[in-house]
Design brief:
- There is one protein chain.
- With 192 residues, this protein is of the alpha+beta class.
- It is built from four helices and eight strands.
- The chain has helices at residues 3-12, 15-18, 22-32, 44-55, and strands at 72-76, 100-106, 129-130, 135-137, 140-142, 147-149, 167-169, 187-191.
- The chain has a four-stranded antiparallel beta sheet with strand order 1-8-2-7. Strands 3-6 form a two-stranded antiparallel ribbon. A two-stranded antiparallel sheet has the order 4-5.
- The longest helix has 12 residues, at 44-55.
- The radius of gyration is 17 Å and the shape is globular.
- The protein starts with a helix and ends with a strand.
């Protein structure tokens, strides 16, 4: 596989046709999981500035609780388990006081956008059943604890998010379990 073939597959949403094995996909994920803002094809600082006007706060791309930037490129092959289980990012201390920004890049539709549980950010913690850091899900270990249930059903909704738009939400909202139900397109999104 040449770099040009891989790039074309990304741009055409056919990544899943050349990266069919879970092991190769995990190798790709390890390389794409922690990009820097400067690696992104968009001006991330402009996104933070514009978002800051909407939430009436000065936002920064730097998280003072972390020694590195976290920008994640997510690749989700159709019908695969290329996603995180249901979770709240706020269970990890370094995500408290932040905002989640999910940007669709390719292959994002009503069948593949990031699912969220509306209102779950208001659930009292003593009514949420969750695992612990390091839980296994589909044979993979996850840092953030899995949310199993809450005071209301885990009724996921896939917000309509078009190219050029962003899904912005508190790290307290339950999200994840984003199986790509599109029949033949890899979903590519960026998370800030």
């Amino acid at each position: 596989l040449t770099l040009e073939q891989a790039a074309n597959a990304f741009l055409q949403g056919t990544y899943h046709k050349i990266v069919a094995s879970d092991e190769i996909h995990r190798q790709v994920v390890r390389r794409t999981a922690n990009y820097r803002h400067s690696d992104m094809p968009v001006d991330v600082r402009a996104i933070y500035a514009r978002l800051g006007t909407h939430v009436r706060a000065t936002l920064s791309e730097n998280n003072p609780k972390l020694e590195k930037e976290i920008v994640t490129l997510r690749l989700s092959r159709p019908g695969s388990f290329d996603f995180n289980p249901p979770h709240r990012d706020s269970y990890l201390d370094f995500y408290r006081g932040t905002l989640n920004v999910w940007l669709p890049l390719l292959g994002c539709s009503e069948n593949s956008t990031l699912p969220v549980v509306p209102g779950s950010h208001l659930w009292p913690e003593d009514q949420v059943e969750r695992g612990v850091s390091g839980n296994l899900f589909n044979g993979l270990r996850f840092n953030v604890p899995i949310v199993f249930s809450g005071p209301a059903p885990l009724a996921f909704v896939r917000p309509k998010v078009a190219l050029g738009q962003a899904l912005v939400f508190t790290p307290n909202i339950v999200h994840g379990a984003a199986i790509n139900l599109a029949p033949d397109t890899t979903r590519m999104s960026m998370e800030l």
